[in-house]
Write a structure and sequence with these properties.
- The complex is a heterodimer.
- By secondary structure, chain A is α+β, with helices and mostly antiparallel strands.
- Chain A is built from 6 helices and 9 strands; from the N terminus they run E-H-E-E-E-H-E-E-H-E-E-H-E-H-H.
- A two-stranded antiparallel ribbon of chain A has the order 1-9.
- In chain A, strand 3 and strand 4 form a beta hairpin.
- The longest helix of chain A has 15 residues.
- Chain B is built from 26 helices and 19 strands.
- Classes of the chains: A alpha+beta, B alpha+beta.
């Protein structure tokens, strides 16, 4: 079993992950459509990769009124059945990170699917801020979700 | 969808507060590629040899790399082009950060700013929407505060290019800062922006950039990303930044100290990249768009008199210019000086150079306390360094004498002070000890913007890596030329590097991927360009377009009145030999320079006596408008 691991302290803000995700899923370079984004505080040079790292308790799965989202059996992350999705946006409201979104032209929800098991973001991340490791995605010790949340709080707190 | 093969140029006229859009044809993109190339032709068409660089008729052009906004490694660089205030000649200045890619996503490959606003303004570009708004209380604020104010007013998603007080006060070496800490550093682009009453350009773009063959492009870009990451030069840059070479340069007596009077300084260790990391100044590494190396430093000073200092940098040039050059090796002071230059919006290289000139004038008794308002300009005076940076940016105190650059400062002071004004064409030289590097010396002498490194760096001539040596053999035919101490074959080395640099700049690539490490060769650049634009170009063809860009820049200077006489080195480097070290005695003598210039002009198809490109040379490049205008001026040799 493999999982995405994020180490925000290594992120240099280069955006390669965002570009790779965009071109591989959408055939164009458009950060708005990528499944990962980089939250930054430019003045303090903080950069934090933000993509689905599978929350405790799957709020998006619970929020879906038509059960179109379920946990992927191998990747242990929410997967959207585009056929069943009615585009209501309840999952986007439930997501604390806004990493599940409604596609602007297809009208259905989309979220990081780890490119089916060979995530391109990790493939292009030279500093190692995003990598693939052995383990279960739902375990914060594997995913780095705690570190990521702390880093996001750092930026948030400094903005106040 | 945004096309790379046929980009849009956004024109903004600040005098009349109007804007319009022009489309660039694929044929023009084939000829001039992007950024620096497209900018050069727009500059040629927009100004005349009578245009005042600080007047409303100058243009300020921002060109994003042709491949900016994609993940081709290091492809996110932007070129700023205008007629330069320091030299009165051609000026291009390159910058990293993330602004250019955002401009592309807003729909524009190039932004051309015309005229002058009646009050300070900010240009705000929000996808297709363009507004010119009053800058109000932003005018007078530093770059960091300005950026925060813009994000507060318009939104976090904006990328900001702005000037600080230095640009507002038309300091001759004021720069434009992008994403706060990235500088279009040299030649005074910030003064041109200030002369237009333009405080900032804020851009937000959410559009889709289209490439012709996305899957192949992705695979090639990823392959090159890993190739660059495997390069040891790239790894060193990641570990220690450009600051990582300070000790190496110091050891070979090439660290320009005390205004190029010495090549080594006691305590250089304290201003090295290794020390920044070991002593805890380095907090994070930053990368420009799409770059896997991340050579930028983010450093802070947490204790002592300068506690609270925080900034991107410092780079090698900054540590040499504001540190060793001024006789300063106190880490805290240099970091403070770096931060100030960044937020006040001032080129660290020129600032350091002019301050060193003042210190040498003090050393030689031409300046005293009565001239400086009581400020002591002894070498190494940390307080005076900081005070002068503040004074220069606001044109106050003794610093006001330095704000127009070292050439004018020496003219003002008189006596023999011109001899230690280390400048040529009106631009202060970068901190490269060219007396020890012949290829660099030639490149500096012929550089249209002045004696500067970020235009044609002939790093390969020192053959420090197997790849560098390989390149020298390829260009000259023999390993015997892989040394910086001879004049033979320098013209061949410089010419290839000129073309490679032009292509790299035009596509958005960084020198650290193309001519310092060689992971992204012209062949790779041609392949990426073809896959992105659908315009098929071979390595020869793309280098030919690079040649066209370089030649266009030369023609601009010919039209301005520059001749062979202007292609020289600063007086000190031509006449004072290196004092110490294994190569003591070397200098960029007129004899050596002339020999290299003869070879260089002949190789380029330019007239050896005047340096003017010949008609046949321009014809071969299809440069008909340049032929017409230069012939009219009697500056077109057959």
């Amino acid at each position: 079993m493999v999982a995405l691991t994020v180490k925000p302290q290594l992120c240099t803000g280069c955006m390669a992950c965002v570009y790779a995700c965009s071109v591989v899923h959408e055939d164009v370079f458009q950060p708005k459509l990528a499944r990962v984004r980089i939250d930054k505080d430019e003045a303090l040079a903080y950069c934090v990769p933000v993509q689905c790292l599978t929350c405790e308790g799957a709020p998006c799965v619970d929020a879906c009124p038509v059960a179109a989202i379920s946990m992927h059996p191998e990747l242990h992350r929410p997967a959207v059945d585009a056929e069943s999705c009615v585009g209501c946006g309840a999952c986007t409201e439930a997501c604390p990170y806004k990493v599940i979104k409604l596609h602007e032209s297809r009208g259905v929800a989309y979220v990081c699917d780890m490119c089916g098991g060979e995530p391109q973001c990790a493939r292009v991340c030279i500093p190692g801020a995003i990598s693939v490791t052995e383990g279960v995605q739902t375990d914060p010790a594997v995913s780095g979700r705690t570190e990521r949340d702390k880093a996001l709080e750092e930026i948030g707190r400094r903005k106040q | 969808m945004i096309s790379i093969s046929s980009p849009q140029v956004l024109h903004v006229d600040l005098t009349n507060r109007k804007h319009w859009v022009e489309t660039v044809s694929p044929e023009t993109v084939r000829r001039l590629l992007g950024a620096r190339g497209l900018n050069a032709e727009i500059l040629w068409d927009s100004v005349s040899h009578e245009t005042d660089p600080l007047g409303p008729d100058n243009v300020l052009i921002f060109g994003a790399g042709a491949l900016s906004g994609t993940h081709a490694p290091t492809s996110g660089r932007t070129t700023v082009t205008c007629k330069g205030p320091a030299t009165g000649l051609y000026l291009k200045s390159s910058v990293g950060g993330h602004w250019g890619p955002e401009l592309k996503r807003a729909g524009y490959g190039v932004l051309v700013v015309h005229g002058r606003a009646d009050v300070p303004v900010v240009i705000v570009i929000d996808d297709g929407d363009v507004k010119v708004i009053d800058a109000g209380p932003m005018w007078g604020k530093d770059v960091r505060v300005t950026t925060a104010m813009i994000k507060e007013q318009f939104g976090e998603g904006y990328h900001v290019a702005s000037i600080g007080p230095a640009g507002e006060n038309l300091v001759a070496f004021a720069c434009i800062m992008f994403n706060i800490y990235n500088a279009a550093g040299r030649g005074g682009t910030g003064a041109v922006m200030g002369s237009k009453n333009l405080k900032a350009v804020a851009v937000r773009g959410t559009g889709a950039i289209y490439v012709a063959k996305p899957r192949e492009y992705h695979e090639l870009a990823v392959e090159l990303r890993h190739k660059l990451a495997a390069d040891t030069g790239s790894q060193n840059l990641s570990e220690y930044g450009t600051a990582g070479i300070i000790m190496t340069v110091n050891q070979i007596h090439g660290l320009a100290s005390y205004n190029f009077q010495e090549g080594t300084i006691e305590g250089a260790e304290k201003i090295s990249g290794q020390y920044l990391r070991r002593a805890g100044y380095l907090k994070r590494r930053i990368a420009c768009d799409a770059c896997g190396t991340g050579c930028h430093r983010y450093t802070t000073v947490d204790s002592g008199a300068h506690a609270g200092t925080y900034s991107g940098g410092p780079e090698f040039e900054t540590l040499a210019a504001l540190g060793a050059g001024c006789g300063v090796t106190d880490t805290d002071t240099v970091l403070k000086a770096n931060e100030l230059c960044n937020i006040l919006g001032m080129d660290t290289i020129s600032a350091g150079s002019v301050i060193q000139w003042a210190m040498e004038s003090w050393q030689r008794g031409l300046l005293s306390a009565s001239d400086t308002g009581g400020m002591d300009l002894t070498w190494g005076n940390c307080e005076s360094l900081i005070t002068l940076i503040h004074q220069i940016s606001t044109r106050t105190g003794y610093g006001a004498n330095l704000a127009d650059g070292v050439k004018k400062a020496a003219e003002r002071l008189g006596g023999e002070s011109w001899k230690w004004a280390v400048q040529a064409k009106g631009l202060e030289q970068s901190r490269v000890e060219t007396r020890l590097r012949m290829g660099y010396a030639l490149a500096f002498a012929v550089n249209p913007r002045g004696p500067d490194h970020l235009m044609t760096e002939v790093v390969a001539e020192s053959a420090r890596t197997p790849e560098a040596k390989e390149l020298v053999v390829k260009l000259t035919g023999s390993e015997e030329y892989a040394t910086p101490y001879i004049t033979e074959k320098r013209a061949e080395l410089v010419r290839w590097h000129e073309d490679c640099y032009a292509v790299a700049d035009a596509l958005g690539f960084c020198a650290f991927a193309t001519t310092l490490a060689y992971a992204i060769s012209p062949e790779s650049m041609a392949r990426l360009f073809s896959l992105a634009t659908g315009i098929e170009m071979s390595e020869e063809e793309i280098m030919h377009s690079g040649r066209r860009i370089v030649t266009l820049e030369k023609c601009f200077n010919v039209r301005e009145g520059a001749t062979r006489a202007d292609d020289k080195m600063p007086h000190r480097l031509m006449h004072d030999p290196v004092k110490s070290g294994p190569k003591a005695g070397m200098r960029n003598s007129p004899e050596l320079l002339n020999k290299m210039l003869d070879d260089y002009y002949a190789l380029h198809g330019w007239d050896v006596a005047t340096s003017y490109p010949r008609r046949g040379t321009l014809q071969e490049l299809g440069m008909h408008d340049q032929i017409r205008q230069l012939a009219e001026m009697g500056r077109l040799p057959e």
